[in-house]
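All the exercises in this workshop are built on plain-text protein records. A record pairs a protein's sequence with a compact description of its fold. The structure tokens are whole numbers drawn from a learned vocabulary of backbone shapes. Once this layout is familiar, the rest of the handout is easier to follow. An example says more than a description, so a record of this kind follows.
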Amino acid sequence: MISAISWVPKGASIAVPAEVEPPSKEEIEEMLKNESLDRSGDIEDEEEEDMDVDTSKRTDEVAQALAAADAVGKASETGNGTKDIEDALKELDMDHYDDEDGGFELFSNGPGDTYYPSNELDPYLKDKDDDDEEVEDTTIKPSDAVIICASNEDDVSQLQVCILEECEEGEHNLFSHHDIILPAFPLCTAWLDCGLKGGDKGNFVAVGSMDPAIEIWDLDIIDEVQPIMVLGGIAKKKKKGKKSSIKYKPESHTDSVLGLAWNKTVRKYLASASADTSVKIWDLVTGQCFSTKKHHTDKVQAVDWNKHVPDVLLSGSFDHSVVLVDMRYPSHTGIKSEVASDVESLAWDPHDQHSFVVSLEDGTVQCFDVRAAASNPASGCKPCFTLHAHDKAVSTVSYNPAAPKMLATGSTDKTVKLWDLANHQPSCIASRNPKAGAVFSISFSEDSHFLLAIGGSKGSLQIWDTLTETGVAQRFGKNSKGKADSKTEVKL
């Protein structure tokens, strides 16, 4: 299944990602040393009854080994083992092995002795054309769109780095470029370009998972086995008999990370939402949490920064509320607004600093205008409208970055719908079952504005060119940079 999708802006990836260097001998020895220390610490914490069980187990294993050795010894005494080996050697006739017709001599003047002045001239080595083709396949061109999919299949969690390649005559080719194996089931992602390795920018993705840690991976490195940075997480686990205790790193979440949002203006800020009912703001330069908000009473499912007022953060929870906080006023408790059901996702309108939508577990989408709460912040906001969008939970929403008031919704009812929200009178202009199963994540591209990436329970990434829909073309075609091509719908 695909649980989360993030687009990488065109040109942000380096053309040929570097391959990770294997660990040095010293690094391997250090890792083994640390692992040994961890194990010894765990052993010291075990109770005596566990040690007795282990001792008994080792005693049984030694007894079995002695019995096996004794059996082998008896077989040797009878001579049967030696006789079997002698019979096998006679059958091979090793004394006359080199005399067989058609055999190769060890030292000869045959083709094996041919000398080639360069690898390019050696026909037994890989064809140079194949090398060039492989390099071309791994090269990320400036015109390529890169899509990050957080997925899980057969209990293997990973990030798939996919390429949407523009081909001739408007066609597109979608393929997987490389994978990053993850230690835990991924739940959310956020692309970011904060310069974590020096310099002004980079190409990274933050991943929230079933673990309390937030991992940040470098997308310009292939076969990387460790994240470049980890925010929070477990410091140490101790086992005491049948019980275990967990010590978390300072300021860490203590449960799954359900939502992430990177601040594109204040680029060192990353917001996270967790099942531990808290919202945290992280400084990506220091790797530390500098603010924790506890204004919810249940799991916090989603967070999003206002595109126009970068200090304003919105969060939504299973406690049937959304809370707006302004980082410029840290002592303020924020503006809380009630919603009709569990919050599944939310998003600020990129074209209107006062408006946002919230999608709910009951299949509805509610739109709010923050100006409605200005007169009485304590009462929060009342929805401008409530849209009965789907038959099941609306798990994901995405605003079109170029077409004002165009919203896409995805649901566990397996459908994706496109809406025109003009004048607070929403109307459905297109609907499709993309054959992705229950839809968990959708996202419009920031570069090719009408391309919508779709991921769901079937684990197949799909791209829908929404401009091919008549209703979209009629209402929002003027916001397009170019003509749509019906062949753009592709899937991985």
Remarks:
- Confidence is low (pLDDT under 50) at residues 74-78, 102-108, 483-487.
